[in-house]
């Protein structure tokens, strides 16, 4: 048997399972040594689970801090980009008013250019556009598929089973 203190959670669970299987095979005969070993494994398992919780909470807190920092940086990026665009727009207006198409400075050359095609500006809301002028993104209606897969209607269920299946529910831990 591996040194108890160096066991992983999986190894502890395997040791506990082996010990419990041996107890069942022996008709439940529990010696003081078996009981002490079982108690040590349970205590060690509790410590490992507590360690997992500590690490998970630290990782989740770090992930939340990274998310907050990412949002802060994205907001900063948006403000900086908007400020740069505002300066570009002012420069375009100034050059147009002065009739300039090019300007040379010690930092570089500025050239006034026009985009290849003028933009389309909507006069109505997107919802008011006829079908020929909108894009529709297709995605699976998983709720409808689930309901059809569980339906009492055999034809509907058969059609759904041709298209999809209900997978295994995933397990997860919840920390309180």
Describe the structure using short key phrases.
mainly alpha; two-stranded antiparallel sheet
Question: What is this entry, summarized?
Answer:
The chain has 176 residues and is mostly helical. Helices cover 58% and strands 3% of the residues. Helix 1 packs antiparallel against helix 2 (32-98) and helix 3 (142-149) crosses helix 4 (154-163).
Written overview of the protein:
This protein has 4 helices and 2 strands. It is mainly α and 176 residues long. The chain folds into 2 domains: 114 residues; 30 residues, no CATH class. It has a two-stranded antiparallel sheet with strand order 1-2.
Head-to-tail CA distance between termini: 34 Å
Radius of gyration: 33 Å
Shape: elongated
Strand content: under 5%
> What percent of the residues sit in helical stretches (DSSP H or I)?
55-70%
Largest beta-sheet details: 2 strands, antiparallel
Biggest sheet strand line-up: 1-2
């Amino acid at each position: 048997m591996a040194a108890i203190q160096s066991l992983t959670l999986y190894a502890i669970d395997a040791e506990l399972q082996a010990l419990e299987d041996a107890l069942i095979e022996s008709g439940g005969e529990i010696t003081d040594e078996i009981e002490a070993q079982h108690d040590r494994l349970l205590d060690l398992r509790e410590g490992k689970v507590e360690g997992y919780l500590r690490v998970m909470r630290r990782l989740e807190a770090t992930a939340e801090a990274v998310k907050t920092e990412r949002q802060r940086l994205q907001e900063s990026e948006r403000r900086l980009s908007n400020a740069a665009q505002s300066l570009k727009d002012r420069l375009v207006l100034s050059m147009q008013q002065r009739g300039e198409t090019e300007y040379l400075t010690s930092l570089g050359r500025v050239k006034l250019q026009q985009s290849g095609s003028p933009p389309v500006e909507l006069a109505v809301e997107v919802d008011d556009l006829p079908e020929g002028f909108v894009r529709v993104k297709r995605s699976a209606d998983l709720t409808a598929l689930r309901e059809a897969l569980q339906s009492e209607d055999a034809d509907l269920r058969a059609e759904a089973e041709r298209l999809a299946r209900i997978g295994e529910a995933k397990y997860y831990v919840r920390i309180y």
